[in-house]
Task: structure prediction
Amino acid sequence: MGGGLWATPLGCSENFMNSTKYSKNIFSFSNSSLFKKDEIELFEKDILFNSHATENDASKFFARYPVFLKFGNTAELKREVVLINNINMTNQRIDFFKRNYGKKYWDIIELKSPQSSFVTHRKGLHPRISSIVNSAIHQALDYRDKIISDSEIKNNLLSKGIAVCRPQILVIVGKEQSINSSELMEILLDRIKNYGPVEAITYNHIYEFAKENYKTNNVALIPSNNILIGDYIVEHVSDGIIIDTPFPLLNHGNDERTDILSKTVVIQVNGRLRERIFLSNAVKLEIEDIQNIALQSAKVNRYVPTKNAIKKTIYIRDKLLNIVVG
Result:
């Protein structure tokens, strides 16, 4: 075969095209797959914030909800594939093999404990990835070396429908609460690339990906009489204004739902009640946000036609906003 997009990498066989044997641990995806609200809630409750969650628990969860390992580009997954070499009695297990859309060859996913720390010596002069992350990377690299060097292992994988050629590695391990704002995390993730064809992420990365993907694909489901402000839905009802998240989740470390409307902010104009704003547990707003939302209400706007009419505001967080006008 000549060069081009579908050229076969050097030293990799094309015989797998004739292989039709597939294991029972195979999942197929389509581009229409989306995260569901209850799936994200389960991931948060059972894996991310469950102090007893293990690597095996994570593996079972991903087997049940493989969309969490999809990342928008995965066509197939196979779970717990054993590397078999009858001569050397090799018997090691790959957590998941994955094949991306448009690719012939499969890559490796290595799972470790969701509760491990990703970063160690964070407050010291030389923060670095933890020993657990380092161990997981080297274990996956060992698997990769065995696959590349052992033709019997490759042929055995091929019989299961898994064609491999210098597989890439994704390690999923631990959690970090500040992944979105931490420059340190980005530095460490970039440093991991020095190990070779390895990418490492935390369970938080999967969680944040799922939440953003869900919100992005479900904005169209928000009723037309509601509006989306930042991460929150603002709904005007007869007895007030409801501010909530697009989907309810559990608070960290307990079973309290974030979609309970537990807070009521009373809106006053010159000390007189004009409106109420109902907040769910998950909503965190500053005075400027509350004021802007209050001014959208016809009940308030009747007495405060513009911001220029406001002389001062008195705000008690999550309880009261009194707008004083001249």
